[in-house]
Amino acid sequence: MNLAFGYVRRSSYKQQENNSVEIQKAYIQEFAKRKNLSVPEEFIYVEDVTSAYAKRAKQRKELMRLKNMMIERGIDKVIFYEESRMDRTGYSFVLDFYRPLQDHFPNLEVYSTTSDTPFDPSDFRTKITLLLYRQESEIKSERAIASLTSFLNNEEKLRPGSKCPYGYELVNKMLLPNEDADIVTFIYYMQSWGLSMLKIAAVLNEASIPSPSGKMWRPSSIEAILKNKVYTGTLTWNVHKGKEPKQYEFNDFNEPLVDDFLIKLINANTKLQKKYGRLDTPFTFLNKLFCRHCNEKLLTQNGSTTREGKKYDYQYYVCKPCNYKLDKTAVHNALLPIVLNHIETTVSGAGVKHIALDYLDQTNRSIEKNIEKAEERIDILISKGSIAEEQNDNEYNSLVKSYHQQEANFLEECVNKQQVLDELREAVQQDLIFSRFKSTLSSRLGETETRLFILYFVDQVMISPGEEAKVLFTDNMLEIFDLCLTGQSTE
Ligand SMILES: [Zn+2]
C-alpha cells in the first residue's frame, strides 16, 4: 500500500470542537482507506494555530516540516482535512508549499478530504475556491462560484484584443506580460519617486515611447494605468445584483507587473504628501522647518519682482511671529549636505539591514500580542453571547455582538499590518529599500526626489537667523509605512 502524509490544524478557538484534531484525523484515515493509501499516525502533522487569522503558508512551522519530510522520505502524497486548512491567505499555499514540492515530485498528489481529485492550482475552480476563502461568506455559495466562473470564462469576449490591459496579452484566457510590461513598471517606478502624471507623460513622450493608443502620452492615460489594479495582480469583479453594483477583488490573480513594495511606498508617499504638503515644490523643506526662538513652523513666501526690466524671483522661509525671512537657496545650501550625508551613512552602513529587521520584528511582536489579547476577548464574548442567547436577553446579546464586531475589525487591522510587515521584511531582505536610496544618491537629485528624502529621514529642523541649524532625524525611515496599530481595542 502507498504511504501518504496528513495535515491537520488545531484551532485555539474552544468553540470549534466539531473540527477537533481527532475528527480531522478520522476523516483523513477514512479518505486514505478509500484511496488505498496508508497514513501512519506519526505521518500526520498537527499545526497549532495560534491565530485563527491568516498567515503565509511558509510561516506555518509544521507545514514547512511536512514539506521537508515528504522530500526526505520521497513520499509524494499528502492529505489535508479540507481546503481551508491548506490556505486561508489565498495563494501562498501554492507558492510556499505546492510549487517547491512539485519541483521534486512530478506526480505530486495533494488531496483534501472533500474532493476525490488531487489539488491542482491551475484548475480554475480550485483557484476560485481558494480565492473565495478570503471573501465574505455571501459569495461562497455554489451559485456565486458558478457566476464567477462564467464571468472569467467570458473574459475573452469581455476584453477583445485592443481592450486587453496595456502591458499584457491574453493567452488561453490568462493575462501574460508582453513587451510593454516594462513601461508599466517604469510608470509606477516614476510615480514612487513623486513624479506627477504630467511629468511621467513628458518623460515617455521624450523617449518616443508610443502610448497604448499609439499616440502621445497624456496625464489621463498615465492615470488610467496607475489606477488599474490589474497591474498588481488583482482581478476586479463587478456584480450587478439588485440596485447597487458590488465590486469584489481577488488578489494574486494574474502575474503582477508592479511589486507590492512599490505600491506600499506610493501609498506612504501619498500619506506624507497629505501631512506635509506637495512633493513637487521648490521648497523641499516645506513644513519641516521650525523657528528656534518661538518654535513656530516656518511658512513660505514665493514671488517675483521686476527691477529695471529684469525679473527677479524671491523665495523665502518666513517666521511670522519673529518677523524674519530666510533665503530659500541659502537654507537649502546649508541643510542639504547635512541631510544627504546622514542618509548616505544610514543606508550604506553595515548594520542597516539588521536594524530594519529588528524594528520589524519588534513591531510584529507587539502586533502579535495584540492579536492574542483580542482573541482572548473574543472567546469571552462568544461565551457571554451564548449565555445571553440562552437567557433570551436580546439587549445584552446585541451589545456583545457589537463588541465582537469591534474586536473583529481590530483583528483585521492587525492582520493587514502584519501583511505589510511581511512585505517590508521581504523588501529589506532583498535589498529593495536601501539600494533604492544608494543608487539615487549617486545621481543628481531632482526636486521631488530631494523632497521625498527629506520627508523619509528628517523629523524636523530647528532654525533661526545667524545660528547654526539643528537637524533632527527620524528614528527609522520604515515608520513612514505606518505599522503601528491605530484601532481602538476594547478592554
Ligand atoms: Zn520665530
Topology:
Elements: E1 2-3, E2 5-11, H1 21-34, E3 37-38, E4 44-49, H2 61-73, E5 77-80, H3 83-86, H4 92-104, E6 109-112, H5 124-132, H6 142-153, H7 155-158, E7 168-171, E8 174-177, H8 181-192, H9 197-206, H10 219-227, E9 235-240, E10 245-250, H11 260-276, E11 289-291, E12 299-307, E13 310-319, E14 324-327, H12 328-348, H13 352-390, H14 394-429, H15 434-441, H16 447-457, E15 458-463, E16 470-473
Parallel strand pairs: 1-3, 2-4, 2-5, 5-6, 11-15
Antiparallel strand pairs: 7-8, 9-10, 12-13, 13-14, 15-16
Helix pairs in contact: 2-4, 8-11, 9-10, 12-15, 13-14
Bound molecules: zinc ion.
Keywords: Coiled coil, DNA recombination, DNA-binding
InterPro entries: DNA_bind_recomb_sf, DNA_bind_recombinase_dom, Resolv_N, Resolvase-like_N_sf, SSR_resolvase
Coiled coil: 357-391
Tell me briefly what this model is.
With 491 residues, the chain is of the alpha/beta class. It is built from 16 helices and 16 strands.
Describe this structure in words.
This protein has 491 residues and is α/β, with parallel strands linked by helices. It folds into three domains: 2-124, Rossmann fold; 152-258, Putative Large Serine Recombinase, Chain B, Domain 2 (Hect, E3 ligase catalytic domain fold, Alpha-Beta Complex); 259-491, no CATH class. It is built from 16 helices and 16 strands. The chain has helices spanning 21-34, 61-73, 83-86, 92-104, 124-132, 142-153, 155-158, 181-192, 197-206, 219-227, 260-276, 328-348, 352-390, 394-429, 434-441, 447-457, and strands at residues 2-3, 5-11, 37-38, 44-49, 77-80, 109-112, 168-171, 174-177, 235-240, 245-250, 289-291, 299-307, 310-319, 324-327, 458-463, 470-473. The strands form six sheets. The chain has a four-stranded parallel beta sheet, sandwiched between helices. Strands 11-15-16 form a three-stranded mixed beta sheet. The protein is globular, with a radius of gyration of 28 Å. The two termini are 55 Å apart. 27% of the residues are buried. The model is unreliable at 134-138 and 156-162 (pLDDT under 50). Zinc ion is lined by residues 291, 293-294, 296, 319, 321-322.
